[in-house]
Amino acid sequence: MSETELDRAHGLMQAAPEDETAAMAFYRVLAATELFLMLGAEAEAGDAVTPEVFEVEGHSYVLGFDREARLAEFAGREVPYVGLSGRALAAMLAGQGLGLALNPDVAPSAMLLDAQAMGWLAEMLAGGPEAHEARIEELMPPAGLPEALLPALDARLASAAGLAPSAYLVGVAFEGGARGHLLGFVDALPGAEEALAQAVREALVFSGLEAAALEVGFFRASDAMAAALARHGLRFDLPEPPAARDPAARPAPGSDPDRPPRLR
Question: Nearest 5°: phi and psi at 3?
Answer without folding.
Answer: -70, 140
